[in-house]
Every structure is written in C-alpha cells, then in structure tokens.
Amino acid sequence: KAAAAKAVAEADASGVARATALFKKTYDGACPTAAAAAPGRVNLIGEHTDYNDGWVFPLALEKSTYMVGAPRGGDATKSRVVCEAFEGVVVEFDVAGDVAPLGGDRKWANYVVGMVAMYVRAAEKEGKSGSIPAFDAAFVSDVPIGGGCRRRLRSRYVLRGHWGVRSGGWRCRGGRKAGDGNMSTGAFLEALTSSPVDATERALRGQATEHEYAKVPCGIMDQLISSRATAGSALLIDCRSHEVAPVPLSDPSVVIVVTNSHVEHDLSGSEYPERRQACTTAVKAIAAKHGSDAEPIKALRDATLDMLADVAGDLDDTTRARAHHVISEDVRTQAARKALEAGDFETVGRLMGESHASLRDDYQVSVPEIDALVDIATNVDGVYGSRITGGGFGGCTVSLTKRDAVDALLAAVEAEYPKASGGTKATCFVTRAGAGARVLEVPSET
Length: 446
Ligand code: GAF
Prior knowledge:
This protein is of the alpha+beta class. It has helices at residues 2-26, 110-125, 180-193, 199-214, 221-228, 271-290, 305-310, 317-341, 345-361, 368-378, 406-421, and strands at 34-43, 55-56, 58-71, 78-83, 91-94, 135-141, 164-166, 170-172, 233-238, 244-248, 254-260, 383-389, 396-402, 427-431, 438-440. The longest helix has 25 residues, at 2-26. The radius of gyration is 21 Å and the shape is globular. The two termini are 30 Å apart. It binds 2-deoxy-2-fluoro-alpha-D-galactopyranose (GAF). Residues 47-48, 50-51, 178, 218-219, 221-222, 267, 390-391 line the site of 2-deoxy-2-fluoro-alpha-D-galactopyranose (GAF).
C-alpha cells in the first residue's frame, strides 16, 4: 500500500510539473494556481451494461490526465486551453452554459468546453452567475491511447483518454481510456473556484458532456470510475443507483494486464447508438409482456433470460442476441464480484472468457485482432481469463494473470499477435488499481 501511494505521489508530482512547464511556455511564463488529476480506466467485466442500468466492474489505471491553470484576471472573457498532444495549438472558448461544441481541429477541446458549460449551467440553476472566471489551462496525460491511432491521432480522441505523444508524427502508446479528460477538467474547475462537487455529480456532468459535446451516447461507467475510484480496489458499480462497492485487489500473486491491439475504434460512429437502440427495443417487448406497476421493467437490468425467451418471437435475431448479451453479462458481473471477493480467480477468469464470447457472438463488438489477443492470452499457462474491455470495435483486452505468468504472456503476444494483425505489434502493461479524480497542490516554487 505504501509503495502504491508513493508511486501515485511521484506520478502526480511529475504530471503537475510537466503540465506546469507547458502552461508557462504557452502563457508567457505565468504560473498556474490550480491543479487536478483523473485516471483512465480498464473494465474487468460488465460491458455494455451501464446504459442498461446494470452493473460494471472497472478499476482506475495508475495513469492519469493532469490539468493546471489559473484565472486570467482583468477583463478577459474567453478561456484558453492547450494540451501536450497538440502543443502550440491554443483553443479559445467562451465560459458559458450555452456555448456551442467546437469543430474542425479544435474538436479535441470539447471535453473542456462541455464540462465548463455543465458547471456554469449547474451554478445558474442555483441562481449563481459568473461562477467560473475566464481561465488559462494546460493538459498533459500519462493515460495511454485507447485502441487505435496506429496511423494518426484523431483529435476527438484527445481528452477522452486517447492521448498521443509527438515523436516524428503522431504516435500512440498502448492502453485504454476514458473519463479522465472530462473528470480532470471537472476536478480542475472545482480547484479553480474552491467549490468541490460530489464525485457522482461530477461524473454525471462528464456523461452529459460526452452526449452533448462529443456526440457519444455513452453510459456512466467511464466517468464514475474515473471520478470515484479507490486505490487498490476494483469498483462494482450499480449504474442505476450509482452505488459503488470497492473490492480490494490485494493478492500480490495476481495481476491485471492491459493489452492494446492498436486497432482503431471510434464510438461516435453508428455502432454504439445501434446497440443502445436494440436494447431499448428489447426492453419494450419484455415490458409489454412481463412488466407490471409493482415490478416495472424499465431497462434490461430488470429482465431475465426466461423473460427474453418468452418474447423471442417478437424480436428479430439480432435484437434478441443483443439483449441476451446484456442480461447474461449482468449475471456474470455480479458472480465475478463474489468470486473476486472469495479470491476465486479461476471463476473470475472463466466469467471473463464467457463475457468475451458473448461480446463477440451476441453483441458483435469484437474484431478478429482482439479475438486473437484473447486466444493468445487464454492459451498461456497461468492466465485465468481474458476479454475485450471497453466499448469495442478495437481497443484493448484485459487479462487476469498469475504474476509468474506475465513474462510468458508478453512473449506469446509478441510472437503471435503480428501474425493475426498483419504485422502490427500490440503493447501491454501491468496495472494495479489507481486513485480517482483529485485536486492537487501546485508547488509554490512554480
Ligand atoms: C464505452 C462507453 F463510454 C461506456 O459508457 C460503456 O458503455 C462502454 O463503452 C461499454 O461497456 O466505453
């Protein structure tokens, strides 16, 4: 525990120092007065259940996004933001509740602009105006890119946890994502205005930003885990009540490995909304037959596989398969929580394998490269289980592994994956469960 806390403190100090250097360089040597961080995440199990009011079981990465800044003062009306991935491009925007999403090469800043709009709106509801002053800010991130970007960094990925580093053109680092961009913005705005916000409320503002400003109709998982994570634990999250139950990952002989396929994914396309729509269609059919005033069926979380079987004739095969995934995934996720609490890693691994098969066959959000990574990992002695993690269509896998088996896993991925990916190499990292969004000190010497 002490070592983990020390590692977080060191990473935070280095993140704030890097962001401060970027801030000074961008804003004529000025010093930031507020700083905050929020982590990326990886989901152990419970995929595409969050927008069905179900359960998810993610943990925060030990890698975070850092934001520093200061009020501009004087009569400045616009805020400015710069990020390491687009160093030199300073985006200006109005601090307002009705500010329009940015377009073109300024799209990356929408997570900031959107969060500012959400905080301004919330204050206005309480009758407060001028709650956020015009500010300057700078971002850096240790959160690796989610999935793709083998070829180029798409601007909308930045600040959703999909970060690039500049090195002879856009280049990516392996890993996955999300919530860290808007949750670090939220915590930063709270630091700037000395007005802390409840961590769940911060996550809800982040989700609204995704919907309205990034046009991704996401659930609440990414923002909630980034906002509320507990170091050392995965969180079983009830996406209806927003209650969270930390489950310690305390066995030192077992680790979590994240592997990036480097297959590009983009949840702002049509696939994610189509999956959501199929779930809505299935809920309507099940509710019509099985819902009652006493026990309404409002979401797939309220349904069982028997109920689904009962309405199978009213649904097309695709819709039925989508609902089958979600209903069975909720069951697996709760079983995985119990198994993890009992230290039964074999069962957790088996459930992860079943989750992957369901996401591949019923929900159809996997791709051949990810399936290959899961097969490679599953065939390594000492790997309990492996699956696609996150929204899908590329991205990363998560594997639960004996610590002793990590070298064999990395060697197998290195040797086997390029055969399935047309030569692309995967990148892996081992992670413990990191801390949630936090306000940080700005060192006085800055
Ligand atoms: C993406 C979304 F942002 C989440 O809300 C969740 O639906 C996930 O895909 C799938 O579990 O990351």
